[in-house]
Amino acid sequence: MVGTVSHMATSSAVSHALRPFGTTIFSRMTELARQHGAINLGQGFPDFDGPESICVAAAEAMRAGHNQYAPMGGVPQLQEAIARDAAEGLGRTIDPAGEVTVTSGCTEAIAATMAGLLNPGDEVIAFEPFYDSYPATVAMCGATLKTVTLRPPTFAFDAARLEVAVTDRTRAVLLNTPHNPTGRVATANELEAIADVCRRHDLIAITDEVYDRLVLEGEQQHLCLAACDGMVDRTITLRSLGKTFSLTGWKIGWAIAPAHLTAAIRSAHQFLTYAVPTPLQHAAAHALSLGEPYYRTLRDEYRQRRDVLLQGLSQTPLRVFEPEGTYFVMCDHASLGHGDDLAFCRWLVETVGVAAIPPSSFYADPRSGADLVRFAFCKSLPVLEAASKRLAGLRAP
Question: 44 and 214 in contact (C-beta within 8 Å)?
Answer without folding.
Answer: no
